[in-house]
Amino acid sequence: MAARVARAALAARPAGGYGSSVRFWEARVFDGRKPPSDVAEQAGVTSRWLTLTTNVTMGDGFLTAVSLIDANGGAPSAGMTPPVIVRRDWDESD
User: Fold this and answer.
1) How far apart are CA 65 and CA 53, in angstroms?
2) Over the stretch 7-33, which tens digit does the pLDDT of each residue have?
3) Which of 38, 30, 92, 44 is nearest to 65 (CA)?
4) How far apart are the first and last CA of the chain?
5) Do residues 43 and 61 make contact, with C-beta atoms less than 8 angstroms apart?
6) What is the SS3 assignment for 48?
7) What whole-number distance in Å separates Cα of residue 32 and Cα of residue 70?
C-alpha cells in the first residue's frame, strides 16, 4: 500500500471509529483490495481512550468530574501496565 493510500485511510476514519475490523476493511479507500487473511487479522478494534463522567451531589452542591483514561496506562499495548487517568476536569454548581 502506498503511503498516500494509508494517509487517505487514516483521514477517512469515521468520527466514531469503524466499530469492527470488518467495517474497516470495507472502507472506500480499500475498494478493489482484499488483503490476505494474515494481514486482515492484524486489524482490530480496541478501546484505549475512555471518558468517565462522574456526578456527585453533596447537600446542595453538585460536582462533575470528566476524566480521560488511557486503558493501556501509557504502554504500547493493553495488559502491560494498569490504566491511568491522564486528565481530569472539574466543574461545580449549586
Assistant:
1) 6
2) 888 888 888 888 888 888 888 888 888
3) 92
4) 56
5) no
6) coil
7) 36
